């Protein structure tokens, strides 16, 4: 199971538990369940019990966000104080959960493999062809990868819970068009988070170094271990190694247009190609222009 299949494990519920427990010595399971689902809530079954709180709590434990400490449950550490001061509570929590969900060395990496693979797959899709939020995308997944693995995206509820998490962590956006909600692959917020920790205050980095750094920190982006695994299974033509995906290209262009990074293309330097579907652009160096 993962945060995809445990549909009760939404970002807001896990954040409530962590914020309550952070800095405390822990608390009893029943008190945490009461915090998540007070008995006054009308979502309970006929016997007075609800699966919402227990399932969300158990997923937080599998993820490694919370830990058992004797008879109590406690937060597994604290938010990064520097990131909290610089970027706020929400972003600090998103960075923590992102590591727990995507880092192969994280405590719950085995249980969260489906989520990391599903994000990698989503980022190979074109932002110009958004996916419907209300319609499960298992057919498209299998068109790309065959039927060996479904990444737990086997129902509308699971697809939607995956999208909530992907958006919360900065890997996609939602847009309403004609009464429908569409999901746009767009890792701008996630790429910004990692570039903020990577790019020097002055000067530039070669694009190859930037991509290696991003892949190390975030294995669902180009050249990352999980991304290579997913793209290696494609039934469709693979992406050219020198060409970035349209989703990553969009993220870099948006950060440039927002005045947060600069991109240059020198004639005699290693380059990557930004893909905008109907146009391309070369980039060899990326620099920070102001606080990310």
Which spans have pLDDT < 50 for at least 5 consecutive residues? 41-48
Main sheet specs: 3 strands, antiparallel
Spell out the helices and strands N to C. HHHEEHHHEHHEEHEHHHEEEE
- As a percent range, the share of helical residues equals 40-55%
Shape: globular
Radius of gyration: 20 Å
Structural class: alpha+beta
> Span from first to last CA?
35 Å
Number of helices: 12
Beta-strand portion reads 5-15%
Strand order of the largest sheet: 3-5-4
User: Mean pLDDT, rounded to whole units?
Assistant: 93
The total of beta strands comes to 10
What topology emerges from the helices and strands here?
Layout lengths: L10 H11 L7 H8 L15 H12 L2 E4 L2 E4 L5 H7 L1 H14 L10 H10 L8 E2 L5 H8 L10 H13 L3 E6 L2 E6 L2 H11 L5 E3 H11 L7 H7 L14 H12 L3 E4 L7 E4 L4 E4 L1 E4 L4
Antiparallel strand pairs: 1-2, 3-5, 4-5, 6-10, 7-10, 8-9
Helix pairs in contact: 2-3, 4-5, 6-11, 9-10, 9-12
Describe this structure in words.
- With 292 residues, this protein is α+β, with helices and mostly antiparallel strands.
- Helices cover 42% and strands 14% of the residues.
- The chain contains twelve helices and ten strands.
- It has helices spanning 11-21, 29-36, 52-63, 81-87, 89-102, 113-122, 138-145, 156-168, 188-198, 207-217, 225-231, 246-257, and strands at 66-69, 72-75, 131-132, 172-177, 180-185, 204-206, 261-264, 272-275, 280-283, 285-288.
- The strands form four sheets. The chain has a three-stranded antiparallel beta sheet with strand order 3-5-4, covered by helices on one side. It has a three-stranded antiparallel beta sheet with strand order 6-10-7.
């Amino acid at each position: 199971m993962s945060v995809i299949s445990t549909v009760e494990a939404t970002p807001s519920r896990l954040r409530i538990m962590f914020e309550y427990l952070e800095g405390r010595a822990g608390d009893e399971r029943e008190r945490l369940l009461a915090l998540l689902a007070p008995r006054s809530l009308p979502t309970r079954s006929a016997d007075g019990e609800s699966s919402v709180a227990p399932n969300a709590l158990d997923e937080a434990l599998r993820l490694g966000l919370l830990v058992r400490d004797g008879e109590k449950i406690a937060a597994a550490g604290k938010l990064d104080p520097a990131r909290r001061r610089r970027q706020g509570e929400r972003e600090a929590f998103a960075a923590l959960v992102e590591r727990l969900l995507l880092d192969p060395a994280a405590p719950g990496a085995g249980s969260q493999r489906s989520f990391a693979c599903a994000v990698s797959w989503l980022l190979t899709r074109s932002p110009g062809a958004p996916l419907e939020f209300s319609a499960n995308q298992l057919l498209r997944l299998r068109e790309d990868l065959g039927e060996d693995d479904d990444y737990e995206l086997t129902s509308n509820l699971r697809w939607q819970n995956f999208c909530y998490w992907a958006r919360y962590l900065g890997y996609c956006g939602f847009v309403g068009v004609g009464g429908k909600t569409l999901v746009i692959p767009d890792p701008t917020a996630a790429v910004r988070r990692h570039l903020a920790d990577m790019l020097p205050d002055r000067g530039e980095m070669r694009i190859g170094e930037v991509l290696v750094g991003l892949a190390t920190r975030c294995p669902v982006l180009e050249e990352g271990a999980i991304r290579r695994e997913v793209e290696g299974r494609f039934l469709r033509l693979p992406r050219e190694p020198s060409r970035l995906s349209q989703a990553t290209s969009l993220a870099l262009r948006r950060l440039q247009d927002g005045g947060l990074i600069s991109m240059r293309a020198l004639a005699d330097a290693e380059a990557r190609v930004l893909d905008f579907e109907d146009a391309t652009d070369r980039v060899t160096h990326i620099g920070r222009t102001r606080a990310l």
